[in-house]
Amino acid sequence: MNSHRRVCILFCIAFICHGAVAQQESGTVIILSLTRDKAIVAADSRESNGNDVVVTDQGCKILAFDDKAIFTLSGTRFCEMKDSERGNWNAQGAAISVYKVLASQTMRVMGSDFIHAWDKEMLRHMNFQLCTGSHLGPHGEVLTALFFDLDSFNRIEGYADMVSLHGSRVETNIVPLTPNGLPMGSGWTDVLDEFLAAVTPRAKAWHKRIDNYSPERRVQALGQLTREFDTSGHVGGNIDMAVLTAKGIQWISTKTKCQQQH
């Protein structure tokens, strides 16, 4: 189980911005499984501000584009400076805008084109001098974006883009995701890591219970286990889930407001 590949980003950012008050929402868990035929993406609903205070347990963290692609992210979704327009940015808003522009230019938006365009747009807007504090993750992560779509052969492809801060230098790292069908995670993944290691008594019990589930039920169950047993305080609310195949997007979600297509 230790050989399972996964994206594990753990972080908490508190904004202290040159005397101005910054509003930001972050804190999440994303659990997914990716094969050439199917992308299964689950997310919790909790969003917290820069002081780790829960803002809402009704957040929509999975975006669907034209029934053809899924975008989600862990980490800081937006930063809003009360006294400055220069520091404002919204990672989901940038994704919607970028996809619309690309869709107006081509019949099929390719994953590589999208993730690089989103990366460029985010770097253009994100002002870390105005909108960062001293509590970055262990590797300087700010957020990780995940994008899933259909390639020219109608096979599923996935990309991850990690945005990090190293001193005053912003770095991004775009990588394709391996379509091996194994559970992967982003955000507060301690429970998922425990499950994958399969060492603790409760992890072994979890495996006995869900190993025979369908891939969809397994991902959803891992999301629910995280919501139940995570101790960080950053995971909560309903577990929403979307499944992308060549036939389009199927929603498995308890919040219909989050199923709107963009």
Architecture blueprint of SSEs:
Blueprint: E1 22-25, E2 29-34, E3 39-43, E4 47-48, E5 54-56, E6 62-65, E7 69-75, E8 78-81, E9 89-90, H1 91-105, H2 111-125, E10 141-150, E11 156-166, E12 169-176, E13 184-187, H3 190-197, H4 201-210, H5 215-229, E14 240-245, E15 248-252
Antiparallel strand pairs: 1-8, 2-3, 2-13, 3-14, 4-5, 6-7, 7-10, 8-9, 10-11, 11-12, 14-15
Helix pairs in contact: 1-2, 3-4, 3-5
**What count of domains describes the coordinates?**
1
Radius of gyration: 18 Å
Q: What's the overall geometry? A: globular
Annotated CATH homologous superfamily: Aminohydrolase, N-terminal nucleophile (Ntn) domain
Beta content: 25-35%
* Number of H- or I-type helical stretches: 5
Amount of helix: 10-25%
CATH architecture: 4-Layer Sandwich
Describe the fold and architecture:
By secondary structure, the protein is an alpha+beta fold. It has a single domain (22-187, 232-252), classed as 4-Layer Sandwich (Glutamine Phosphoribosylpyrophosphate, subunit 1, domain 1), CATH 3.60.20.10. The chain has helices spanning 91-105, 111-125, 190-197, 201-210, 215-229, and strands at residues 22-25, 29-34, 39-43, 47-48, 54-56, 62-65, 69-75, 78-81, 89-90, 141-150, 156-166, 169-176, 184-187, 240-245, 248-252. A hairpin with a 3-residue loop joins strand 6 (62-65) and strand 7 (69-75). The chain is globular. 42% of the residues are buried. The model is unreliable at 1-21 (pLDDT under 50).
